[in-house]
Amino acid sequence: MGAVSESRTVVAGAVIVNARLLLAQRAHPAELAGRWELPGGKVEPGEQDTTALVRELREELAIDVVVGDPVGADVDLGGGLVLRAYRVNVVSGTPAPLEHSALRWVDAAELHTIDLVAADRQWIPDLVALL
Ligand SMILES: Nc1nc2c([nH]c(=O)n2[C@H]2C[C@H](O)[C@@H](COP(=O)(O)OP(=O)(O)OP(=O)(O)O)O2)c(=O)[nH]1
Q1: ipTM given for this complex
Q2: Gap from CA of 109 to ligand 1 centroid (Å)
């Protein structure tokens, strides 16, 4: 009941190691392909954000993470989607681009110049503060 009016959360993870942030290059859809994002995906109905983010990063990157604090503010993507980022710590595995075109580690300077997915640009100051 009421499903059409409820928003769906997209969770995204900020993996930071040695003052570099892990970005993933989208392979699809066409309008986002080639642009860089924080890896993650949609929270399933009834699923916790943290559970969803652990699941998504296992599926997309083959890593196990512990989810930490939120990063920045939620971003309204339109179409009933709300985007939310969390800091995550890798507990096992090495990130591999299982569902993305490529992965890249960026420092604060590179974060300003890379072609981020538009919604993620709002988090640049928050992410730079963590780098
Ligand atoms: N994962 C992720 N998605 C983002 C980011 N920024 C942003 O606008 N998006 C958008 C793109 C998509 O419209 C939506 C997430 O879709 P997705 O394709 O990653 O989700 P998913 O893995 O659950 O895939 P699916 O159910 O659609 O097949 O959020 C981001 O930083 N990370």
Answers
A1: 0.95
A2: 25
For the record, the structure tokens of 102 come out as: 């490529």
Q: Which atom of ligand 1 is the closest one to the Cα of 12? A: 32
The CATH number linked to 40 is 3.90.79.10
Give the domain range for residue 63.
3-130
Q: Does residue 62 contact residue 96 with C-beta atoms inside 8 Å?
A: yes
d(CA 46, CA 60) in angstroms, rounded, equals: 21
Q: pLDDT tens across 96-130, in order?
A: 999 999 999 999 999 999 999 999 999 999 999 99
Task: Say how many Å lie between the CA of residue 91 and the centre of ligand 1.
Answer: 23
Structural domain tally of the chain?
1
37-81 tens-digit pLDDT? 999 999 999 999 999 999 999 999 999 999 999 999 999 999 999
